[in-house]
Write a structure and sequence with these properties.
399 residues; transmembrane helix
């Protein structure tokens, strides 16, 4: 079955397709809302599960993707299979079920990954437009909460808005910014909405007062300004906006006390000023000592759980790649890095810098469980001009 025939078949049930795409927008809008404690499924996760099931039913348990998408799915499947195997092994050895709970995050995100790959390949621009609608809706709801003073409850001037903690807010902002950069390459985004997304994600990063998120945001922004983004992106408007904003900030800074007495800016200055001290304490605070002091886990990993094995610490490793290395060894780390490199190559290196700076954020935070990261990698994993490959029951075979 060719890709054109597959798309024509989809047209028979347009209502089902429309519902899936609308649900994906709703998922993005609901993603920031944490109604329960972190680590538990949220409302958005329930919506995504419904999307995954509906997509499989609508496609009669068949996934259609490009050759590159098939390769990325196979790499991600190998990674998830390895993760689950390691966690089940340690669950049996330690007699604890926390390892199985950790595996569920990865299995869920694998479902998110293959569903995104499938939808992106089949519906292309239409799917991207619904993602953009979801992004705008999510950012508007967060701005609404900010303007009405909802979520400034973490202390030190740090905002949480609808999240449980400000780091989640900062990570959400840079992930959305990364997806926005991807969309800019594939669909025509009106300048006003592009600027809205760029500015709003910047505001959310800053009010989170997350050093990692702020640095990563400006890294992605710099990449957006430096690297060619096609005729669809009018750089001059963004450059003009940033120039005017910096000029206004400078005038206010030297002529008024508004900025000097602003609590948020004072907190930001304090946190950025302590960045060097935090870097010096990274190994101790984030858990990097586990790499050097526990070489027995270098090859296969320690599994994700029972952290008391590490000098009695009850906290997980606060690093994306670092946690993968300790939990799943060199094999798990290589598989995930291979998946990212494959996605970068497939996207023709257009979106390397958002992924790079998102991983830079991950130097001090473990962001592997966030489904938006898997969505971004999935979007980058498709060659939209290549020949399609039908994948039946997640097993690939060329037609």
């Amino acid at each position: 079955m060719t890709i054109s025939n597959q798309i024509n078949n989809k047209a028979v049930d347009k209502k089902s397709v429309k519902k899936i795409l609308v649900l994906f927008s709703l998922y993005l809008i609901l993603t920031p809302f944490y109604f329960w404690e972190s680590g538990l499924p949220q409302i958005s996760d329930l919506v995504m599960i419904l999307i995954i099931i509906s997509n499989l039913i609508n496609n009669k348990m068949t996934l259609t993707t490009s050759v590159q998408g098939k390769q990325s799915i196979l790499i991600s499947f190998m990674f998830i299979l390895y993760v689950v195997s390691i966690n089940f092994t340690w669950s049996f050895i330690m007699g604890e079920y926390i390892f199985i709970k950790s595996s569920l995050f990865y299995i869920y995100n694998f479902g998110v990954f293959i569903t995104t790959v499938n939808l992106a390949h089949i519906y292309k621009d239409e799917f991207f437009k619904y993602i953009m609608i979801g992004i705008i809706g999510a950012l508007l709801t967060q701005l609404f909460m900010l303007f009405y003073g909802i979520g400034d409850n973490y202390g030190g001037g740090r905002y949480t808005l609808s999240f449980n903690n400000p780091n989640q807010l900062g990570y959400f902002a840079i992930l959305i910014f990364g997806i926005l950069v991807f969309l800019n390459f594939h669909i025509r985004i009106k300048t006003k909405w592009l600027l809205f997304g760029v500015v709003t994600t910047g505001v959310l990063s800053i009010i989170s007062l997350s050093n990692a998120a702020i640095i990563s945001y400006f890294g992605i922004l710099t990449g957006l300004l430096i690297f060619k983004n096609g005729k669809r992106f009018k750089k001059k408007y963004l450059i003009l906006l940033i120039t005017v904003a910096l000029f206004v900030f400078f005038i206010l800074y030297i002529n008024t006390s508004i900025i000097h007495e602003n609590t948020l800016l004072q907190s930001l200055e304090t946190r950025l000023g302590s960045t060097s001290d935090k870097i010096a304490r990274t190994s101790e605070v984030r858990g990097y000592f586990r790499i050097t002091e526990y070489p027995q886990f270098w090859i296969f990993g320690s599994g994700e759980g029972a952290y008391y094995r590490f000098d009695g610490s009850s906290l997980e490793f606060h690093s994306t790649l670092g946690n993968l290395q300790v939990s799943y060894g060199i094999f798990g780390l290589i598989l995930f890095i291979t998946l990212m490199i494959k996605s970068i190559i497939t996207s023709r290196y257009k979106c390397w810098y958002p992924l790079f700076f998102i991983m830079l954020y991950g130097v001090t935070h473990n962001g592997i469980r966030n489904s938006l990261l898997w969505i971004l990698i999935a979007l980058m994993s498709i060659n939209y001009n290549s020949t399609s490959t039908k994948m039946s029951n997640i097993k690939s075979k060329d037609e």
